[in-house]
Prior knowledge:
Elements: H1 2-41, H2 50-73, H3 80-101, H4 105-129, H5 137-156, H6 165-191
Helix pairs in contact: 1-2, 1-6, 2-3, 3-4, 4-5, 5-6
Amino acid sequence: xxxxxxxxxxxxxxxxxxxxxxxxxxxxxxxxxxxxxxxxxxxxxxxxxxxxxxxxxxxxxxxxxxxxxxxxxxxxxxxxxxxxxxxxxxxxxxxxxxxxxxxxxxxxxxxxxxxxxxxxxxxxxxxxxxxxxxxxxxxxxxxxxxxxxxxxxxxxxxxxxxxxxxxxxxxxxxxxxxxxxxxxxxxxxxxx
Length: 192
């Protein structure tokens, strides 16, 4: 009886380690992308240029790719269904951002805000389901912050002179949360 339990525990532990390692690499990539994206976008915060429109569509599309990689890497750690919900939400956001760019900054802020709100709630749920992996508290905080930020973007769309500054700035702390989580996942895997 104990001989069958040990391999199961070992395989579960090794698959959790593999998932944590894959998530760690993904989180480093997400950090770098978010930082680079924000740096480029800050040069276009008061208007939507063609390059800015492409970047506004690219960010949720990058999120789609990251969610797919995440779902494949972490099938054994729970929540792949929620990650595919995030894929659908981010695809809708990319399409919505593309259409909204033609209407102006208020429309972009509404789309971006709705996306940040819903994807933040999904991120929060995924991170809560992964607490046993370690390194998830930054993702829990990031999901909650994303939902709050999304609501503020929608509210700021009605301002007298709306700008993309808040939506662009949103990428920076999000990236930092990914970096901190990647570092914590690395530390958690070394202590096991």
